[in-house]
UniProtKB/TrEMBL annotation:
Similarity comment: family membership: Belongs to the DapA family. NanA subfamily.
Entry-linked Pfam families: DHDPS
Keyword list, A-Z: Carbohydrate metabolism, Cytoplasm, Lyase, Schiff base
Organism expressing this protein natively: Anopheles sinensis
This protein's name: N-acetylneuraminate lyase
Amino acid sequence: MKRFNFKGLMAPVFTPYSNENGELNIDAIEPYVKMLKAKQVEGVLVNGTTGEGMLLNTSERMLVTEAWKRACSTHGVTMMVQIGGAPFPDVVQLAKHASRIGVDAVLCLPELYFKPKTSENLVAYMKEVAKHCPATPFFYYHIPMFTDVHVHMPAFLNMAETTIENFCGIKYTSGDLEQGSACLKEGRTIFLGADTILCGAVASGFDSFIMTTLNICPEMAIKIIDNMKRGAIEEARAEQCKLNQHIASILEHGDWVSAMKKAFRERYPSLEVGQTRPPLRF
């Protein structure tokens, strides 16, 4: 298995569509990568929640993945791709594709209809997926507010590490910082996915982050992290309050993905990313 030692900021990128017809706009991807790199964001997650991966067909997901892979390789940016949220044969196809083109890591949602209820069930499903990309670092995507899968993550991690050879960690998108902190352990990579608790998460020991606002205002996260690292707690708290207020103002315009994509379009009008697909609010 290839090594995965990424730490720092990874943006869960929006999938670019044409403003005219809603088709994929592959041409926007390389300038998007360059913009993130210039703002100290050194990694991207493709086809996640923010990227509407579950609203793309399999061919589109592979096409988008290939375009991001080319751009990331050119500009020295780490790339993870989310392969779940589809029928099992399609997830397997996406796993094989990710492995074949050499992405740096894969992330996988649980089965979304026949939902796993136990760590054993979840590990068994992840193992069946991971064996189709055995040389690629493999991560589980914990986002219970969307999946309604509430498996205890510390227990899951302990079991997955002894069962799945290429398992490396999780993306932890939950406001339960107590459970999230219990996941932290030497040798694991635990990505925080919850923007609004960044300050507390850094205090707890998180050092890897996949948060939607890294697309829009990464400088705010950078300030919070830097202030926490140098012990400037009050400054970090103040910046977290500003970030949370900014998020609240963005969400006045709709659901999470649509509102965030609208904020992104407004900040970077030269990057044509289009609107969101149904059933998301445009």
